[in-house]
Amino acid sequence: MTSPPPLLGAYAAKQCPYRLFREYDPTEPAVPSAPDDALQLLFDDGIAFEAQIVEQIVELYAERAVAIPGRTESDADTRRGLTDDALAAGTPIILGALMQHDLAGRRLGEVDILVATGATTSAGKPGYRAIDVKSHRCTKNLADGDSYAEPAGAVHDLQLLDPVAVAGLEPKYREDDSLQLAHYHRLLQAHGHAEADGEGAAWGGILGMEGVVAWFDLERPAFSTLTPQEQGDAITFHRRSHSTKRTALDRYDFEFDFRLRVVDTAVQRTSRAEAPMVHPISVKECNRCPWYEPCHVDLAAVDDVSLVKAVGYPDWRVHRFMGVETVAQLAALDLDEAVDRYADTPLGTKKLVEQIEGARAAAAGEAIVRDGWDPAAVPRGDVEIDLDLENETFVYLWGARLTAVPSHWPEAPGTYVPFVSFDPLDEEGEADLVSELWAWLSDLRERAEAEGLTVRIYAYAAASVEGSHLRRIGASLPIAADVDALLASDEWVDLFPYMKRKYMSNEGHGLKAMATAAGFAWRDDDPGGFASMQWYRDAMAGIDREPNIARILAYNEDDCAATAALR
User: Fold this and answer.
1) 539: number of Cβ within 10 Å
2) Residue 530: which H helix or E strand, with range?
3) Cβ contacts of 393 within 8 Å, gap of 6 or more
4) Angle at Cα 238 formed by Cα 234 and Cα 242, nearest 5°?
5) Cβ neighbours of residue 530 closer than 8 Å, sequence gap 6 or more
6) Is the pLDDT of residue 476 over 60?
7) Beta strands 126-133 and 155-156, pairing class
8) Model confidence over 124-140: pLDDT tens digits?
9) Which of 394, 397, 479, 396 is nearest to 445 (CA)?
């Protein structure tokens, strides 16, 4: 008996097609890996955020909202039946709706929130719109502007049935979110709970971490597309933008149909000797994919040029068209000759040079110091302080290291001073820590000024991390103007742009990669921001509290020492 064709969920259209191929290939010998701690933390945060939102909505609407039991509480058939009953009754809000399969469209899906439109569709059924809960931002400020002239859609508070517009915000169109909403809309259409294209507004919502709902017009041309096209001896990028942009529904239909063809090819495979329809390419999604290890073993075996992190899929197509298929081949290109060779391709000079440099670092297995780098380019001081923070909901730790200090001062070089709280924090407690840090910094700066000494305070990616938080928290304190003055002065040094000038790197220019290239090593076996967040949560929950506190402090001290090592 022939098995029915596979049905695909809401993530399929936005996921790597080779990932789907591996999942459905019966000859696949590899096994996907479980999420690592960092990815599991993201999953847990998303689940917790969704649970919080559901609780708020139930409290707001009580009997007007129906929550379908979760997968651990009831079987799938029962949950689908309860969803059908709620849909048929026109229930104003349905939480955790498990939809019946769309066999013709080969779709399945579970929707976080369905909201009744109050209208009856041409199929004679209550109309609904889907909302997905995401623990990321879903809006942008209206002042940010948009190149498209039509209205982007509304932003509402949690009054889903009697919405109140939120001023100053508009939806932030992310293609991955919009593809997922398009999937749910197609499901609703298949079951008669949304109108056909062109017969009624096609809307979907994202309820983001701001605690508002951003409504997206799925028929609004919002997405540029870039498609490599080979024409004889030339390759071009066909780019749709402005008036030729694609709608979310257009993008979804194309991507979903392609994924169906990929899956259908995969399930029919009978031998590893058969060439797959798609091939692995290293992209950003790889870092959080359960197939990372087997895919990258395959890529490494052929030294695939996509292992250069700056090479995206369109660039990969260009390099292969030019006969450059491996990292080694790209690394071997002479920069000047390559610029001439690629002159008639869509790859610009800046991007091509970046990719060649990344290939050279990848081939070397480490970051490479650029020719002509002058260590004196990094500003130095008589007093040098390295700063690093740790945060969860609030910034709970400011770590400072006195890396350089005059010999006649009482402080010893290398002294680490943490301004920290492992008690529950709020805005006031967060501000108290900054006040303590500022008093300590002010004392050092005043003493240095009295002796005519220069001070340098170093941080990494400081504009978006330490500087941003210091300005944000300091704005509520009397020191606000002084903080702004420090951040605008020569005393405040962000080491990130200097490291970009110093190193060719295929691992990016993050602190971990750059300090490792400089020969620094963290004491912890598993250092990382996500890991430290879990240590903090465990400490706050009383799980190995003292060991976790010690681990956090040691990790933060090493982060401070890592920035010092860059000089």
Assistant:
1) 20
2) helix 529-540
3) 425
4) 150
5) 37, 38, 41, 42
6) yes
7) unpaired
8) 999 999 999 999 999 98
9) 479
481-489 contacts: CB < 8 A, separation 24 or more?
482/438, 483/438, 486/457
Cβ neighbors of 17 (< 8 A, separation 6 or more) are 258, 259, 262, 278
Compute the chain's Rg from CA coordinates.
27
Contact between 21 and 105 (Cβ < 8 Å): no
Q: How far is CA 242 from CA 22, 149, 247, in A?
A: 36, 10, 12
> What is the spatial distance between Cα 150 and Cα 175, in angstroms, rounded to a whole number?
18
pLDDT exceeds 60 at position 150 = no
Q: What are phi and psi of 7, to 5 degrees?
A: -100, 145
For the record, the structure tokens of 52 come out as: 């919080």
CATH 3.30.420.10 placement within the chain: 375-565
> In the numeric block, which tokens belong to residue 553?
């402090």
- Rounded alpha-carbon distances, angstroms, from residue 53 to 73, 113, 131, 158, 212: 19, 10, 12, 9, 10
Q: Residue 490: phi, psi to the nearest 5?
A: -70, -15
| Structural contact between residues 422 and 539, judged by C-beta atoms closer than 8 angstroms | yes
Helices (H), 342-390: 349-364
Say yes or no to pLDDT of 148 above 60. Answer: no
The percent of residues above 90 in pLDDT, for the chain, comes to 79
**Which tokens is 513 given?**
């990669």
* 331/507 Cα distance (integer angstroms): 15
Whether pLDDT at 16 is above 80 = yes
3 state DSSP class of 217? strand
| Averaged pLDDT for residues 216-230 | 87
Residues 6 or more apart from 343 whose CB is under 8 A from it? none
pLDDT at 146 over 50: no
Q: pLDDT for 403-426, tens place per residue?
A: 999 999 999 999 999 999 999 999
- Could you tell me the pTM of the whole model? 0.85
315: Cβ contacts below 8 Å, ≥ 6 apart: 347, 351, 355
Provide long-range contacts, Cβ within 8 A and 24+ apart, for 142-145: 142/168, 142/169, 142/170, 143/168
Q: Are 385 and 458 within 8 A, CB to CB?
A: yes
**∠ Cα 397 402 406 (to 5°):** 160
Half-sphere exposure of 440 (CA within 13 A, CB side): 19
pLDDT in tens, 336-380: 999 999 999 989 999 999 999 999 999 999 999 999 999 999 999
Please give the CATH number for the structural domain made up of 375-565: 3.30.420.10
SS3 258: helix
Distance from C-alpha of 279 to C-alpha of 261, rounded to nearest angstrom: 14
Q: Would you place residue 147 in the very low, low, confident or very high pLDDT band (cuts 50, 70, 90)?
A: very low
Residue 493: which H helix or E strand, with range? strand 492-494
